Amino acid sequence: MNVFVLNCGSSSVKFQVINTDLELFDVDGDRTLVKGQIERLGHRDSIINFQVVGYEPFKAVQPVENCREAITRMKDWMESPKTKIPGILGWHDIHAIAHRVVHGGEKFTKSVLIDKKVISQIEECSDLAPLHNPANLKGIAGCYEIFGDKIPQVAVFDTSFHSTVSKEVFLCAIPYEFYEKYSIRRYGFHGTSHRYLAYRYRQLTGKNREDVNIITMHLGNGCSACAIRNGYSVDTSMGMTPLQGLIMGTRSGDIDPTILLYLCQKGIGSLPKIFDILNKKSGLAGISGISGDMREIEKAASEGHERARLAMKMFATRAKKYVGYYMAGLNNCGAVVFSAGIGENSPTIRSMICANMDGLGILIDEELNKKAVGGRSMKISRPESKVEVWVIHTDEELLMARDAVRVVRNVERTW
Fold first, then answer.
1. Could you count the other beta carbons within 10 Å of the beta carbon of residue 58?
2. Cβ atoms of 142 and 4 closer than 8 Å
3. Same domain for 248 and 126
4. How far apart are CA 81 and CA 136, in angstroms?
5. Is 293 one of the annotated active-site residues of the chain?
6. Which residues pair with 385 in a beta bridge?
7. Burial code of 279-295, b = ≥16 C-beta within 10 A, e = fewer?
8. Of 157, 173, 191, the domain-final residue
9. In a 3-state reduction of DSSP, which class is residue 47?
10. What residues have CB less than 8 Å from 356, skipping those under 6 apart?
11. CA angle 358, 364, 366 (to 5 degrees)
């Protein structure tokens, strides 16, 4: 099956076309045929970048108003006689569309076929993710407007992998009625990535799912940690929203909530303005004063920039705290897995996080650590390390495509 995988955000749209099938799931027979993205939606200088894998990309800077127009641009480019896609002659060769949906609340514990009821339920969850779900819904609506109901559409939820987290872990220590009335609780995010990492680790090590007891560290512009026991999520760092947990590119992560009231009293601004600061002007960017991009921060730190060094130390310290916390909860942790932009490409940050953890059985091989860049998946721990350390390239789009195949064919997932 050829699956059109779509990720619609507020200012960008990303897509891939992936050829995958149930019979190929355990032999890496999947193929990404096409990929691309449009950034800066709503601007005159939107950045377009489309590519048939293995060929030169198409690049342009043109105005693209919204998500629907972005999908139309993708469709028109794919249908152009100049675009030669192996195995695809037209949209009749696209068998399903997989949408990333950030928040499924307590309504969705797995990927589902989209219909009017599902759309309504996703809308109901928009209060919990006001920056994300409305954009995801625009992608779904755009596809219905462009393709009608000829191509089945599937929603894949960031939160669903964490639906196995127990009540004593996901509840907040506030009056219980707030959970009952307003669904306030920890939901967790990046679930598609954490789930893929658990599967890929099992595949690389030859373990059964029930033997997968690991900590996965999705470290990119957004960052989250996940404790996985017997192949299932049992704890995760993000909370009701993606603001909680680790220090991120522009997000603060964990913070004393009283600070919000204090900043209001100091005249910094209204509560919405302060939340905007916590989401968009904090984290690595706020600490370093340079950027939220770890590559720029590492470069500045190597040149002696003290606040860049401080940002790196704080980032690593917070991540280390979650590793130790989850190791205590798992009791028999088999591995720590690093992934995403920073996790896959920064030997320095991995080394800082794992430093002085030999008492917990974590020992990395610095030479192997240096080699694990550019999307390589490999073990970087020393032979005597009681807890393995891995770098594994995440592939959320592949998991979304595979889920779409399962849902369309009505086959229960086994991982």
1. 15
2. no
3. no
4. 30
5. no
6. none
7. beebbbbbbbebbbbbe
8. 157
9. strand
10. none
11. 130
User: What is the number of other CB atoms lying within 10 angstroms of the CB of residue 154?
Assistant: 24
Q: Which of 158, 235, 395, 403 is catalytic?
A: 158
pLDDT of residue 362: 97
What is the C-alpha to C-alpha distance for residues 3 and 94, in angstroms, rounded to an integer?
6
pLDDT tens-digit map of 336-370: 999 999 999 999 999 999 999 999 999 999 999 99
- Number of residues assigned to the chain: 415
Amino acid symbol at 340: A
Residues 34/17, Cβ–Cβ less than 8 Å: yes
- Residues 30 and 324: their CA atoms lie apart, in Å, by 36
DSSP β-ladder status, 223-229 and 214-219: antiparallel
For residue 414, pLDDT beyond 60:
no
Q: Coil, helix or strand for 5?
A: strand
Question: Is residue 129, in this structure, part of any structural domain at all?
Answer: yes
Residue 16 has pLDDT above 90, yes or no: yes
- Tokens representing 179? 């959970």
Structure confidence by residue, pLDDT tens digits, 86-121:
888 778 889 999 999 999 989 899 999 999 999 999
E-only strand ranges, 199-344:
214-219, 223-229, 232-236, 335-339
What is the token pair recorded at 387?
Answer: 């807890």
Taking Cα atoms as reference points, which of 237, 240, 232, 233 lies closest to residue 222?
237
CA distance 415 to 408: 17
Which strand (E) or helix (H) includes residue 113? Answer: strand 112-113
Residue 286 belongs to a domain with what CATH number? 3.30.420.40
Burial (CB count within 10 angstroms: exposed 0-12, middle 13-18, buried 19+), residue 105: buried
360: which DSSP letter? G
Residue 166 identity:
S
Statement to judge: residues 151 and 277 lie in one domain: no
Asked if residue 253 and residue 327 are part of one domain, the reply reads: yes
